[in-house]
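Field: sequence (string)
Field: structure_tokens (string)

Example rows 1 and 2, in order.
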Amino acid sequence: MLHPIHRTLLVVTFIGVTACDRTAPTAAPSTPSVPTPEFAVVPASLGMALQGLDAAQRRRFEMGRGVFATVFTPETGLGPLFNAVGCANCHEEEGGEDVEIHATAFHGAGARCDDLAAVGGQVIQKQITPAYGDFLQMTAEPIPAAATDSGHRSTPDLFGFGLLDAVPDAVILARADPFDRNGDGISGRPNRTADGRLGRFGRKAQAATLREFNGEAFVMEMGITNPGNQTEQIVAGFPFPPGVDPLPEPEITAEQFDAADAFVRFLAPPARAPLGIVGAQGALVFRKVGCASCHVPTLVTGASPVRALRYKVVPAFTDLLLHDMGPDLADICLGQADPTEFRTEPLMGLRFAAAFLHDGRATTIRQAIELHDGEARGARNRFLRLTQFERFALLRFLKTL
């Protein structure tokens, strides 16, 4: 019998894991697998809920599990551009290939970032439904000619996202030091949405709320319009002809989207593995080398109407701020985030990861650390100067997360 945490791996991917299972369907099936994208009865192994939910919240979580496990088809809203046929097709277990491509336009320091939404960006979908593909004579959306940068993105983990959403802005902003006034070489700064709200979700902290992040994911990854985002993704200059996208917008109901949002919002972080003496020493090394300056071990949530999210200590290992990671990791801009800037990745569930960093280029935790640069250069260099035992202890600690 699988340990509960291992069962969780069936759906929820982890930090920097390159998401889609190679054996999972990645193209639109020729016949519908389900008649409608309605709530299905699926195993409880697809994720564990936060403790302290009331009966109604638990019901929404379980309803959302069904939406999360739904396999969509063109007849039930898939596409016409998409990356996967359902949430669970990417958020299910350690994977192999990258799941998406991003492209934006950026013209230098101080320039405004263009997410290329008007011409198909920033997510460039890798698949097209058969009818639209036949019309376009294409098999994937092309990167817009206006793009100045593109990059790959692995599927993010979903652990504890509702808790991160409940952290007050003031807690995050209190750690920002954009001008490095304390001289420690760390100058984390917030990303902001176009209307000035604090970003916290996405590899560039481009989304302000979990609900917005989830709404964008339905459209950008599956082409499923929802009450929060009813704009279909199409190849610029090629609107789809009648019959290519048969469902009217929105393609899922408010009830279905609310349930899926509840599933992600109420998904619990995994319990930590036993620390042990060596792991405890590694926790001290983690702070000694400066990892905790950005991967802040705990954040505290604020007031919330949901008791399970209210005033909780979150083992987040992130400050939810942007940090310059150096030119070798740079790719796109988003919002106020420059190409070299990335939000500190949470480390909840790190021990289950198979690949690391925003694009999955690192295959081990040690390699991921060694690829840190920019503001993380000092911590990386201190890591490289550790004794063999200190390095072993640090990696043992990280493998308990």
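Row 2 begins here:
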Amino acid sequence: MRVLYFGTYQRDYPRNAQVISCLRGAGVEVDEHHVAVWDGRRDSWRAGLGAAAQLAAAELRLLRRPSSTYDALIVGYPGHFDLPAARRAARGRPIVFNPLVSLADTFVADRGRFRPGSAPARALAAVDRQAFRAADLVVADTRVHADHLAKLAGLPHDRIDVAFVGAEDRVFAPGWSPDDPFTVLFVGKLIPLHGLETILAAARSAPELRFRLVGSGQLDALARARSANVEWIPWVDYERLPLELHRAGCALGIFGTSAKAQRVIPNKAFQSLACGTPLVTGDTAGARELLVAGKSALLVPPGDAEALAQALRRLAGDPELASRLSTGGRAAYEAQASEDVLGRRWRTILERVA
């Protein structure tokens, strides 16, 4: 089988890199037709007129039809504006859209970039609907997220499928060996989805614990107002993330209270599980598709800083529990989200649509 990974997708974003890697591992020949727009942007939530002009120029370049033929074409994340060019490039072959998110959900409901009901919010919702409907199949990251996207675009269930995000096995491998003292690690963009306010409040409630915050973004101001037991590092190279995870006492997932936070499992959760690092994350419908409370992760109510602080104290004081979660989390990853498992999953999806 031969597929074309297509569009303005962010090439170094884990969802794209991991899908391409696991497909190749499953024996699928993957070519890329990529025009850079979002690559290297750590503050894409601020994207404005400059990015819009760059995107328009990229879409014109994408209109050039590839010379080779393919069994299917995959539009990567973020590719909501790429579907018209993808339809031309596909020449009647099926198009699979790997959107990861709804634009309206992300920039209106989650990040508050635009006011609900405003003209930009309505425009983003229209882009979502048109993009999802233009694809022959949309692949979401959890079942509950798939249901949301299907409802948003009015898609029948046979036009949407599910594959977990996973992690790149070449980068994230077992090796958890925590430093002393116990350190709580957060890695990710500082955006509302992750519940940074809840994490920082938990740190204030547990001043005896050490927190290491890695990332930057929309909520940098909250990080600047952190308590003394929180170390903030705005950026770490992607290849160094396994070292951060291997030496942490535990890793944090997401604790936001938005509807989107209920539906998704972030990259960093899979990366933590792959490394065998004990994971603490919000108790959501999305998380429970992968995780079992007390066996593969500690699950706490989203937005509840005191519950998070208590869970972290418990974990810091119980090495045996931490060890069980390390083993159980890695087992859940191997069974449901490794590259081998997801490679077979993606290949099955592509064979069905092709």
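free_text_note (row 2): The longest strand covers residues 2-7.
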